[in-house]
Design goal:
Jelly Rolls; about 15% helix; alpha+beta; 3 domains; 27 strands; 7-stranded antiparallel β-sheet
Amino acid sequence: MKFLYTVLTIFAVSLSAENKFQNSAAITFSREDNALIKAEFPQQIYNYLRTDYRDMQIFSQDQKSVEFAVKRAYKVTQIPYYRYQTQSITNLQMTDNELTLDVKFKKSQDVAALRINSPIRNFEFDVTISLPNGKLIANKEKIYDYSDFVKSRKDIVTFAKVNTNSLHVKIAGLNKLQKKELVQINQTDNNRNLSETNQKIMVNNLKPRFTFSIGEKFFNSKHQPQSEQIDDDLINWKAESKEKETVISIDPENYPIETITLQSSDNNFSRNYYFRAFNPNGSSYRTGRSGELSKWHYRSYKSSNLAISAPQIKSPYEVVIVNNEKSPIDIVSIDFTIPTKNIYFLSEPNKSYELKFTDKTYNQTYPGLPSQILNDSSTTISGEIIINQLNNPIGKKAVKESKSYRMIIMIALILIILFLIYAVASTAKHVEKSEL
């Protein structure tokens, strides 16, 4: 019986060894009383977890399982916006290359922006704004319209909030680009080369082809989901040109990629793209997602739209950029972003905690914290997860090892059973001989 007990103990230890986690990480924080601990989810461990986190658990120093939750990180940001009011102008003066005027308000008020509306197209002006005391609040800020090249227009100048009853505005660069008159002279004689005396008389008859609106700055609070860039060596990708396409092959593995942002040395281009995924038998199909990539640099206008919303696919896929007869764009590098996530759990006084993950048996349940606890931000303490070493990631290799490990245990179990049968049989024969 003692031998049988020893054998069963060895077998139980062997089975429990299979249930142990492959990886662990210490969770450090400076708090000795009860607290809600928040630690940023380490992006290095995604490949060592299944996507539902069922093979991850937090243990206290006495090896008790602790409930936890994985939540996306959000940040409250203040989004600025402006309310505009059209204002009257006075003291209009114009030279060949410059227009000056005063924008008058009915009373002193807070101002943080000036919108200069105009039907004019194809222009580029420098706008300087000062207060009645001469203090500059905007110096040679660009406003422009590049309709002849790209659909882009900027007609707002923003500055630090001031309280005033007027703004002195100077618009320079009147001879650049534009094809239409900036100022209408409301008189039969439209000769602009008038004498100085006549110019002074005609000041009140000049009408600029602009309307001026002052903007008061306000803010809206917005909860924005946070994202983080993945380290370059964690995602496998390659880009190559094939006939009339540029194909970017991506293996996301277990990473929940949100955006794929291309970095290109080329300027002034536009290309369409779509996604190509693959069936288990190797055949490909389009996912239905598509869009446009572009990058434009022209004078003061710079625009870049090279961010792609990634499909929620765990298997390898391709981003296909359609070049047609155009030259392939030069892709220097690619940035990948994933959601920033935090791990929450409740700590007890004077206890240390450890995150364990990559369980081959895959039989853990995913515990969650009550949502009302997460809303109590006043008790939240920041923690840090320190990873020393990572063993095999989840995948074919880990599954193969798990199967091999189980096979070894099964063989050992069979050998133990055979040995027990042999031992029992031998003991029985020995007893029979003794009785005889």
